[in-house]
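Teaching note: in complex prediction, the entire set of molecules is handled at once rather than each chain in isolation. The prompt given to students was simply: 'Predict the structure of this complex.' The entities are:
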Amino acid sequence: MVKPNIGFIGLGRMGAPMAKNLLDADYPLIAYDIVPSKVESLVSAGAKAGSSCRHVASESQIVITIVPDSPDVEVAVLGPDGVLEGATSGDIVIEMSTIAPGVGRRVAQALSQKGAPMLDAPVSGGPQGAEAGALSIMVGGPEEAFKQCLPILQVMGERIEHFGPNGSGYMVKLCNQVGCVVTIQAVCEVLSLAAKAGLDVRKVWQTVGSGLAASRIMELHGPKMLERDYAPGFTLALQEKDLRLVAAAADELEMPLPATSAVHQLIRSLSAKGKGELGTQALVLAMEELANCQVKG
Amino acid sequence: MVKPNIGFIGLGRMGAPMAKNLLDADYPLIAYDIVPSKVESLVSAGAKAGSSCRHVASESQIVITIVPDSPDVEVAVLGPDGVLEGATSGDIVIEMSTIAPGVGRRVAQALSQKGAPMLDAPVSGGPQGAEAGALSIMVGGPEEAFKQCLPILQVMGERIEHFGPNGSGYMVKLCNQVGCVVTIQAVCEVLSLAAKAGLDVRKVWQTVGSGLAASRIMELHGPKMLERDYAPGFTLALQEKDLRLVAAAADELEMPLPATSAVHQLIRSLSAKGKGELGTQALVLAMEELANCQVKG
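The expected output is the structure of the full assembly:
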């Protein structure tokens, strides 16, 4: 089977390693990013350089986009010189950003009117997962397009699930973010209460973390909080963006999310203090500030 | 070594199996509960019947208490015909209830003035853990008394940790409850958002539960929420009691706990509707009510 030409738009911390994995799997690839040096770096790995989103789309059957936020997707696909102008009937767009489900559905509709179905296929697993081709990919959109694109998705991810029509992939990703932030807050409240009470916080972490309150976040973020290591995997700024998307989606659904909202406000308070580029484990700093205590151990 | 006589006060869903394990380990045991039939049941398993807390204390070197709440401990130990009246210098009280750290410290002080040190040693692991002798036991109190009692604690528990002076065992238990309830809420918000968005909730549970938001509660309570199985392990009423203790302790410490407080209010709303005897996984009913949706799958 001849491999389709893939256009790849968005060569950031996630996109670049994902695109490289596609090159390594021998997909012909044309790449574009608004930052020219990122394109050059991928060209030296074997990609063709695209000069615009339209150009990329006009030279490929499958167009992958992965950019920071909803407006970026709107610009890349619907804007002047965008994917929509370059796409032809039968092309498929795999939109892998984490954006508002409503925006995603609107973009999908515009594309489908040109005969180009879109899959929403946001990912989780971070840059490490992207490099290892081990992302979790949550897909929404036409079943037929999903089946066609599955081999491509399997190059980038390990756990790939189709959830329903366009928008459902984005919604599942938002559900995932809700679960993550509230669980991070659970760990923060445990450790900060322990610190405030003058307990041996590391010992509390061990005991609580091996009981019913055990979680992957307790295991991965707990030690970083204890060591005051706030280097990002995933930044608070990106988390805050995702929580804005959650809030917008919840608003549309008339869905109250009391704990998620509380965490959103705490992250916002950290952003206000210029801490957005720290990792999400730095949420514990908001609890330290609120409670006037220090978590370490 | 001669095994000390153990007095056991409080033969509820936790106390009864814990006392039975001590009998099985050949500890001479005298048992008391305000409900006579519970005493009889333990007598038929080989215990002596105590006629009051004082009586039990006067006939044993080690007195174990495990009762529902702070006032129950005050009555059992400090009240008329209580443990304090029957205890003599050198006795040790192992207080295994989950109560307010401040109350526990006061009770410990009264006992120590009579030469009887107290350990606070609340447990987690539920009736199943109690039956299996596999509880997690979080201990505060004098190191020396802890060492003396360790063989007894090891009959009832598997993970036994000493955290510091009196009150610290209770505090760690409260930290544990904080971690549990906020993590339960994380799962509730994920599943109710998924339901409200019309997604396949079981599929979302599988995907989100195997990513960064994975937790023991996601694993254990998630399926029960999906199956609408609210049979208790641990009841909402007891959880609410524990959250009152958390709130009181946090108040003393001037410790804000935004997510824990939010969950406390939600549990209170379920109690107000007569749902206190359901298991803690029924917290999802509060989200269903708030969001006008139904979690199932």
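Point out the following to students. The longest helix of chain B spans residues 168-196. Chain B touches chain A through 67 residues (CB under 8 Å).
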